[in-house]
UniProtKB/TrEMBL annotation:
<dbReference type="GO" id="GO:0005125">
    <property type="term" value="F:cytokine activity"/>
</dbReference>
<dbReference type="InterPro" id="IPR038326">
    <property type="entry name" value="IFN-lambda_sf"/>
</dbReference>
<dbReference type="InterPro" id="IPR029177">
    <property type="entry name" value="INF_lambda"/>
</dbReference>
<keyword id="KW-0202">Cytokine</keyword>
<feature type="signal peptide">
    <location>
        <begin position="1"/>
        <end position="21"/>
    </location>
</feature>
<dbReference type="GO" id="GO:0050778">
    <property type="term" value="P:positive regulation of immune response"/>
</dbReference>
<dbReference type="Pfam" id="PF15177">
    <property type="entry name" value="IL28A"/>
</dbReference>
<keyword id="KW-0051">Antiviral defense</keyword>
<protein>
    <submittedName>
        <fullName>IFNL3 protein</fullName>
    </submittedName>
</protein>
<dbReference type="GO" id="GO:0051607">
    <property type="term" value="P:defense response to virus"/>
</dbReference>
<comment type="similarity">
    <text>Belongs to the lambda interferon family.</text>
</comment>
<dbReference type="GO" id="GO:0007259">
    <property type="term" value="P:cell surface receptor signaling pathway via JAK-STAT"/>
</dbReference>
<keyword id="KW-0732">Signal</keyword>
<dbReference type="GO" id="GO:0045087">
    <property type="term" value="P:innate immune response"/>
</dbReference>
<keyword id="KW-0964">Secreted</keyword>
<dbReference type="GO" id="GO:0005615">
    <property type="term" value="C:extracellular space"/>
</dbReference>
């Protein structure tokens, strides 16, 4: 009976020993975007529901937008992995900023789950950028797109940027999936 009381003590010592062998800082410094390769269906459903509600709101408004920020003649699959990560980081910066804007209470509630998911993805990407390629210079293709994005942020209304970000949400998610894949993606 006495040997059973030693089991928790042995487990505690083993955990302490393994904790010392693998410092927490080393574990935090790994960069894994694996969880974004296949998105959970309830996350996709929440984003689809938000996008559909936004489209309904757009039908009722007379907002005219000329922004074509997300329109490109190339796909993220054509970029190097560090370029893909930079692209998605810029897309997520815009999208999370637009989802954080004030909206009517119903739509604000609808945005919460997608905003939380995208904010977490944004944090994960920033961690990867800092570790894997802190001094990476974007390709000419990406650099041109990033400049176009900066111009749009200065010249377009917040409403038009919001519309563009929400209407192209699934393109951003696909680019995130592509960045999570370390090899070719389609």
């Amino acid at each position: 009976m006495l040997h059973l009381s030693f089991f928790p003590l042995i487990m505690l010592l083993l955990a302490a020993t393994l904790g010392a062998a693998f410092p927490q800082d080393a574990l935090k410094k790994s960069c894994s975007l694996f969880k974004y390769q296949f998105l959970v269906p309830h996350e996709l459903k929440a984003m689809q529901k938000m996008k559909e509600q936004f489209e309904d709101i757009m039908l009722l408004s007379d907002r005219k937008c000329n922004t074509r920020v997300f329109h490109r003649k190339w796909s993220s699959a054509e970029l190097s992995v560090p370029d893909r990560v930079m692209l998605v980081e810029a897309e997520l910066d815009l999208t999370t900023a637009m989802l954080a804007l004030p909206a009517n209470p119903t739509f604000t509630e609808m945005r919460q789950r997608p905003l939380a998911f995208l904010t977490q993805a944004q944090e994960d990407l920033r961690g990867c950028m800092a570790m894997e390629a802190p001094s990476h210079q974007p390709s000419r293709k990406l650099r041109h797109w990033l400049q176009k994005l900066q111009i749009a942020k200065k010249t377009e209304t917040a409403g038009c940027l919001e519309a563009s970000a929400i209407l192209h949400l699934f393109q951003v998610l696909n680019d995130l999936r592509c960045a999570a894949l370390r090899e070719q993606c389609t």
